[in-house]
Amino acid sequence: MKKYKILEDISCSQESINDVVNEIHKFGFGKLRKVLSNNYCKVLVDAADKIEKSKLKLIKKNHVSTKPLAESIKNGQTFIRNVILDNPELFIPLIDLSPIMSVLKELFKETFIIDGIGISKSNKKIKNGFSRSPPHVDSHIVSPQKNHILDVVACICLDDFTKENGATKVWPRSHKSGVLIHKESKHKNNIPRGSVDILCSRGDIFFFVGQTWHQIGDNKNEKRRWGILSHYKRWWIKPSLDYTKCGSSIYNKLNDDQKILLGFTSRPPSHGSGRLKTLMNVNKLPDDYDTALTL
């Protein structure tokens, strides 16, 4: 069975990995430059445009599956979730890109899984239109230790991210604040000062800690700005989607790292399986999908 593979060889120097890890610890975000080629980004952008077009057709039909997307569009962001299920051949190889894995292994230092992967772009604000979503964090709780990272988002920039087309805004060092800003009533209509725009070129990958305050920027010039957002968590945190229900056609093409990321080695034991602990070695996963779900 043919495995999911990336379209080109991708790597980063250990020095670059170390630098971005240090930036993330210090500021709550960091960036790797020119990881993907322009040609690779073009393929992914075309796929994103195609998926968006199909989803917008479903919105017009009031399809129940598009309610979250319709809501995000109202808040100024086209955010299409779980694109690895729409186009697994193209998007699954991105979840375990070598540079992303190298950064995350340094940050987590234990098994981690993927919470979700989606494509995102900022939309131009129209007169009397949407209200931009306020600053928020992606973590569910405040970490018991300010440097204890529970989750990390990696954004692959498929277009240039500029101040004019809606680059992501972050608040440096906010990951150490111990504050879930979107739950603070005083900040509901009073955006705090001190944010910076993460300016990127096509092919860059930037990371931010789940506890870092962030917000999608305003798209002032209507230029397209697609990014692929992959959210990673420590294995013992419940993901937003149970990717182990992906089906045999996807499972049969996954490599070991992808099986771990999709949660196959961190599922709670099934009744009568004889397994006591949740976390298991990937080598114990059977090749057969249905059998894997009975362990």
Please, could you describe this protein's structure?
The protein is of the alpha+beta class and about 300 residues long. It has a single domain (about 15-245), classed as Sandwich (Jelly Rolls), CATH 2.60.120.620. Helix content is about 25%, strand content about 15%. The strands form 2 sheets. Strands 1-7-4-9-3-2 form a 6-stranded antiparallel beta sheet, with helices on both faces. It has a 3-stranded antiparallel beta sheet with strand order 6-5-8, with no helix packed on it. The longest helix has 23 residues, at about 40-60. The radius of gyration is 19 Å and the shape is globular. It starts with 13 loop residues before the first helix and ends with a helix. The mean pLDDT is about 90.
Name the descriptors.
alpha+beta; Jelly Rolls; six-stranded antiparallel beta sheet; three-stranded antiparallel beta sheet; 26% helix; 9 strands; 9 helices; 295 residues
How do the helices and strands line up, and which of them pair or pack?
Blueprint: H1 14-27, E1 29-32, H2 38-60, H3 67-74, E2 77-81, H4 83-86, H5 88-91, H6 98-108, E3 112-122, E4 151-157, E5 169-170, E6 196-197, E7 205-209, E8 214-215, E9 227-234, H7 248-251, H8 256-261, H9 289-292
Antiparallel strand pairs: 1-7, 2-3, 3-9, 4-7, 4-9, 5-6, 5-8
Helix pairs in contact: 1-6
